[in-house]
Amino acid sequence: MKKLLALTVCICSGSVQAKQDICVFDLLGKAGESYKMMEEWALAAKVWNADVRLIAYQNEEKADNDFKSGKCAAIYMTTMRARAYNKFAGSIDALGGVPSNAIANKAIVYVLDKRNIKRLKTTIDNVEYEVGGIGQIGPAYIFVKDRNINTIEKGTGKKFAVLEYDKAQIAMVKRVGAIPVLSDVSDFVGKFNKGQVEMVGAPAYAFKPLEMDKGLGANGALFNFPVLNVTADLIFNTDKFPNNFGMQSRDWFIKQLPRQFAMVKRLEDSIPAKYRMNLSKDEKEKYQKLLREGRIDLTKQGVYDATMMSVLKKARCAIERTNFECSISGE
Predict the structure, then answer these.
(1) Mean of the pLDDT values across residues 119-143?
(2) Residue range(s) defining the domain that contains residue 134
């Protein structure tokens, strides 16, 4: 009987994974919406035979470095930085690629579909990484300190805070003639608030907690035109998690989308209307063409995934069939 009990314990213990630490980046640390969502994910992960512990980071670069060094078995961070681990999923945040919540929903659901399992795995330095989920953070808008900067041409020569690791942002800012000021997620809004830059792109997620009204002052504004859709990726080391963990995790993330989009709407509605500035129809189309040209160039350079660019175009044209790009090739 004792031998049978010992054998049972041995077999059971072999199926139990060691505790996995998860690096979770949120601008607001444990108080942020993203971290709170990941707390719920951690509870769900126990059902998938994973015993995870979340570690909160307000510095995204440090979180990434700890993941690279093996301190964490997985990381939840902005898709723009996560692109280094998976270009297919990482290209969902392409500039101008997802101009509405309806398109964002279609794109995220498509990427996480089980038919894309091979595209969601990447081997880097003999380590297999897998995308375990995509979270919606929301559309990013251009904020300006002077509402008179209301055309592309008027942005020429103005300082624009960009994320130093995102080649796409740097290239696009240069394309409009503005001056890119290299920044990190932890300080890009701070530079705008302190007057070190005249322009910055950010989602509503950052507005209230980072006190962007201080940067806007009495004459600032945000263009009511999303330049990109910000998401976050869960990237994990496949070898450190149970079989089918990725599929179960991705299914869980898809089920969270309705409330995540509700969160985005709540945060956007909280921005005072006095700051919003609508662009003319001609100016919007000018921006769309500029962003499209930029995406095509960046895809040729290998920054964006060509398959994802085609998927995003189909999603845009399914929602906005009369858009000028739907009748021309190129993506």
Answers:
(1) 96
(2) 19-138+230-269
